[in-house]
Amino acid sequence: MPRNSRNNSGARVSVINVNCGAAEEKENQKSYIECMPPEIMLHIFGWLDPQSLCTATMVCKRWNDIVKENESLWKQHCEAMKDVCQKEVDADIQNDYSWKATLWRNYRKHQVKRAWLSGRYSNIDSPSGLPGQSMCPMDAETWGEILEVELKRKNYKQPVNLRV
């Protein structure tokens, strides 16, 4: 609310309390979010990437419950990972892991494997050139797939074994 006061020169000025109404506005926003139907929230959550989805679960109990109760949110991300990690996703689902557990078991591996297969690390000459935070443990079969792609990419030819 404006109130009148005098400044040093004696003129009247209006002072507006900037904080006035902020609590009301915050309460209206809270009410709006709380009143939103779960179906709409689920649709919105469907647009989030896995990291943002996890962040959304930390906003409030309601969001956490909506995300936890809907395996479809996690399934779509697992389906997207199948382009690189088909066997891992299929094996986890066969072993009765939830879609959420499957995603978290394979997400980092998917990112690293996709980066290797796309050629991101093709021009690195030594292990010191690899970004440590981007790596994760992978099995021999996965490394075999990556090596096979790298060899095709470089048109690698076996060196001739010359015996002297």
From TrEMBL:
Pathway participation: Protein modification; protein ubiquitination
Keywords, alphabetical: Cytoplasm, Ubl conjugation pathway
UniProt-listed InterPro entries: F-box-like_dom_sf, F-box_dom
Domain of life: Eukaryota
Compartment(s): Cytoplasm
Database matches in PROSITE patterns: FBOX
Subunit structure: Part of the SCF (SKP1-CUL1-F-box) E3 ubiquitin-protein ligase complex SCF(FBXO9) composed of CUL1, SKP1, RBX1 and FBXO9. Interacts with TTI1 and TELO2; when TTI1 and TELO2 are phosphorylated by CK2.
Described purpose of this protein according to its UniProt entry: Substrate recognition component of a SCF (SKP1-CUL1-F-box protein) E3 ubiquitin-protein ligase complex which mediates the ubiquitination and subsequent proteasomal degradation of target proteins and plays a role in several biological processes such as cell cycle, cell proliferation, or maintenance of chromosome stability. Ubiquitinates mTORC1-bound TTI1 and TELO2 when they are phosphorylated by CK2 following growth factor deprivation, leading to their degradation. In contrast, does not mediate ubiquitination of TTI1 and TELO2 when they are part of the mTORC2 complex.
Name of this protein: F-box only protein
Gene: FBXO48
